Amino acid sequence: MSTAMKRPLHLSPHLAAIHAQEYPRFSDAEMARRQAALAQVMARAGVDHLLLCGEQRAGTGVGWLTGWPTTTEAYVIVAPAEPQVMFMEWYNHWPLARKLARDTEVRWGEHRGIDLVIDELKRRGAKRVGFMGPLGYSKAKKLEAVFGAPADLNREYVGLRLVKSREEIDWMRIGAALTDLAIAALRAEAKPGLTERELGAICEAAYHPHGGVTYIHYFLVTPMASPEYCVPRQLASNRKVQRGDVIATEITAQFFEYPGQILRTFTVGEPAPLFQRLYETAAAAFDAVTSVVRHGTTMREIIDAASVIEDAGFTIYDDLVHGFGGGYFPPVLGSRSRPAGPLPDMTFQAGMTCVVQPNVVTPDLKAGVQVGELILVTETGFERMHAAERGLFRLG
Question: Whose CA is closest to 306, among 287, 332, 329, 325?
Fold first, then answer.
């Protein structure tokens, strides 16, 4: 059995009390805050009914509003001063959905959920309908046939999720602690002869016993003497770790739908000089970027701070910075040599959570490292969400 199964989860008493609940719940005040925020968006958009949609575990709005993380399909009907109703699938998921969904009447969708939604909206006399989350074309056309084209309010949903509440930050701290367990387990257990798939199993064995759910664990494993790849891959291969390899990883475990994210690099044996320089540049870039992060920071300040990468003769492949927590959110930033499109017209706000992750690579895109983690933006700077040690770790 993996020794990671016995690895303790270190949480403050306050966070441990949340984690220890059978099914943790946010406070009534927090749920009321979310409902009020949606009501304001609806009023500005001129819609009298709103659908929060989820499908095939995609779409975080249903869970954010009700506490039910969508499994197969869910539609929540929201209208101020009217009962909140959710139609969901499958039938065997219905008992748990009724248990978890807050202030919501949960109905089985009978494999025709959008039709039942339309019937309910007609019964209520709905005039203008909006939606947040994934809504398939054929279902949108059914809504349009009765109520006109539904208003797409996904941009507004992103706006609601950018700044986290105190309670949301607490849940993300638990997600970060679960993610840290994967790094500790890799440092202790990764070794030559294991495949990339087995590296993923080490991660999952570390946090699953504590209720952590896998969001991602990506790996880059390549020989330092003749590197072939510069960024962690989304699908693990059956290649075995060998002496002289570099391993770069990006890992997210979730506490329900609240994640951490950590990026670390390991060498199997002494780091080659190139990879030492790549790592030192990435670490310097992380420090430079986080040194300017605060409430009010502009996107240009971030790009300018990251110029230490180009000054060292390197570039990046992965995004440099992205918002995180409830989705892959703005700002999504590249660097001077690898832009991620036009700079977003926004500034950082206290309470935002984002990942700073300089994936520093050689210009020929054959060698790279990953460094970084989830942080919390504060009024005067930033706060680490993770406790895992930083460094270029050596295995074996």
Answer: 287
